[in-house]
């Protein structure tokens, strides 16, 4: 998920050409020294500062239940986090347990850097359908438990809706298709306003001088298209790939995908959505939305809290539009992992199961930051969001597809991302994805 | 007592003295030498070795011969990265040196106030990441002050970071803004070192202010100018932070400079072997450029001597 987008990137500059690969590979002391008298101190890392308070409480609850095990929770920014984890795994200073991300997971399994938890007893039916499969490796073993449910919804600016004579009820049953965009596109057009005050669906609308875009754009995204184009492609009956997770055959050459992309780019060409050039030149989608430049955005449930904290804008949440193949959303979940370098694998696995379990997820739900993956905590999360004035029911309406969790994702994305940017910038046509798809699939042969 | 025994007695303490001096010398050199060996020389040698392996951080890597170097030849992204880096360096160094030279002359002739001279240095004091974030806000397409100003005077808004034609120029200009004060200060120090009587002689011979600059200041400034060029050129090739914060190599590959590409290969794709090979190619290029520069500018000779 894209918390990293909002975080300031502060990757250290490399100073000398040769220094690059100078990390040692000696196996020194692991970060967790064991104390005397059978006491064990575990370290737990996460990158999302918003979730730290909840997991700190979980760590305390875990120690209360297991007085022999204490847990130190540490938070790092996204970029620091992953370089610390990877170099820590090599040098033996990695934490015992850490929050894992789907894009890194297959590599860690492949390189035997994390431990399977198959010997732990877990009731997988307690989780929302589909999510537990995320943390099964290409070797068929289970490495983690899903913690949240990263669903996507439609955020709309209340004031701009009212100006356009629309209410939240008009957003509840939107339809979409790749040919004319359905009632969804009609709404986007109506919410778009040029400098002269003409709306996108009125004659004389000047698409060169747009004051408010009907729909915002959050960059070109990666091959998962999360929050950007994936919900449309999926609701057009498209699927990311066929075959197994270890040997996927991607479908980026499918007309269902390319038709969706043509429609998507068409929104920019018509002036209803900013072009990629405009959208990628600045601070970000939420800042522009907060300044009243976008009437609507598609974004994840994990961003709900920050949308409702915007000072100048009141927000309504609506479900995604229904396409030819129904209402569809991507989903993704974070999960924890036990490092192979831990000195206390038994205790670390116990902690992992606790953090993904009912008691801890109930604590997390009461923080009102994310939607928990465990079904028992959903109502608590809903209630917490409600007290903050947020109705998250619309997020739960679509059917869900899990984003790809496959090996060599970074290599595939090095091919996909420039191609998507080139397409959205108008430098290539949608049929260029046939070649892109061949290149990506060649990685898995 | 014979003469020889006296001499022997005298020589002993001298040897002891010299030995002690050697120890002092080692003690003084050690901190820098250890740092150089541990943080530069050893990693550099290891980098050379890694460039012949398929090291991926998690396993020790196998020797693959020149495969990484053969891959570079056909790597379009690499050649594009070199081109983009060159484009950046030319704009950055060209403009930065010209502006800094002008500022240095102005500092010497006009702005004698310490406060003003100090203010020129402020952007350089700010961390590169902060500078990049600051300009990202200022240049935002919709809510940035620069685009609102353009709009106000009737000019079209510009997507400074999103337009492939503008992105690398924008990044280059941001870093000109950041470093010009520092470069100007170095050049200013060089100008101060030129004796006043040379200017007086030029004035007596009837040279105008412009002529004095081209015929007196510039030639006498050459050693300092050469040093500044070499240092800032190498620094310019290492452009990374601004791009990591603002464009991340995009749009498409328009700002995928060589250092960002190396970083991406190593730390996102774990292809340390290939990344090391590219780093080594970059090292050879920089070494070559520096040698040529030293030769052309004759940096080791001053016309004042």
Automatic annotation (TrEMBL), chain A:
<dbReference type="Pfam" id="PF13416">
    <property type="entry name" value="SBP_bac_8"/>
</dbReference>
<keyword id="KW-0732">Signal</keyword>
<comment type="similarity">
    <text>Belongs to the bacterial solute-binding protein 1 family.</text>
</comment>
<feature type="signal peptide">
    <location>
        <begin position="1"/>
        <end position="21"/>
    </location>
</feature>
<protein>
    <submittedName>
        <fullName>Carbohydrate ABC transporter substrate-binding protein, CUT1 family</fullName>
    </submittedName>
</protein>
<dbReference type="InterPro" id="IPR050490">
    <property type="entry name" value="Bact_solute-bd_prot1"/>
</dbReference>
<dbReference type="GO" id="GO:0030313">
    <property type="term" value="C:cell envelope"/>
</dbReference>
<dbReference type="InterPro" id="IPR006059">
    <property type="entry name" value="SBP"/>
</dbReference>
<keyword id="KW-0813">Transport</keyword>
Automatic annotation (TrEMBL), chain B:
<dbReference type="GO" id="GO:0055085">
    <property type="term" value="P:transmembrane transport"/>
</dbReference>
<keyword id="KW-1133">Transmembrane helix</keyword>
<comment type="similarity">
    <text>Belongs to the binding-protein-dependent transport system permease family.</text>
</comment>
<feature type="transmembrane region" description="Helical">
    <location>
        <begin position="119"/>
        <end position="139"/>
    </location>
</feature>
<dbReference type="InterPro" id="IPR000515">
    <property type="entry name" value="MetI-like"/>
</dbReference>
<dbReference type="GO" id="GO:0005886">
    <property type="term" value="C:plasma membrane"/>
</dbReference>
<dbReference type="InterPro" id="IPR035906">
    <property type="entry name" value="MetI-like_sf"/>
</dbReference>
<keyword id="KW-0812">Transmembrane</keyword>
<feature type="transmembrane region" description="Helical">
    <location>
        <begin position="159"/>
        <end position="177"/>
    </location>
</feature>
<feature type="transmembrane region" description="Helical">
    <location>
        <begin position="220"/>
        <end position="240"/>
    </location>
</feature>
<protein>
    <submittedName>
        <fullName>Carbohydrate ABC transporter membrane protein 1, CUT1 family</fullName>
    </submittedName>
</protein>
<keyword id="KW-1003">Cell membrane</keyword>
<feature type="domain" description="ABC transmembrane type-1">
    <location>
        <begin position="78"/>
        <end position="293"/>
    </location>
</feature>
<keyword id="KW-0472">Membrane</keyword>
<dbReference type="InterPro" id="IPR035277">
    <property type="entry name" value="MalF_N"/>
</dbReference>
<keyword id="KW-0813">Transport</keyword>
<feature type="transmembrane region" description="Helical">
    <location>
        <begin position="88"/>
        <end position="107"/>
    </location>
</feature>
<dbReference type="Pfam" id="PF00528">
    <property type="entry name" value="BPD_transp_1"/>
</dbReference>
<dbReference type="InterPro" id="IPR051393">
    <property type="entry name" value="ABC_transporter_permease"/>
</dbReference>
<feature type="transmembrane region" description="Helical">
    <location>
        <begin position="21"/>
        <end position="42"/>
    </location>
</feature>
<feature type="transmembrane region" description="Helical">
    <location>
        <begin position="272"/>
        <end position="292"/>
    </location>
</feature>
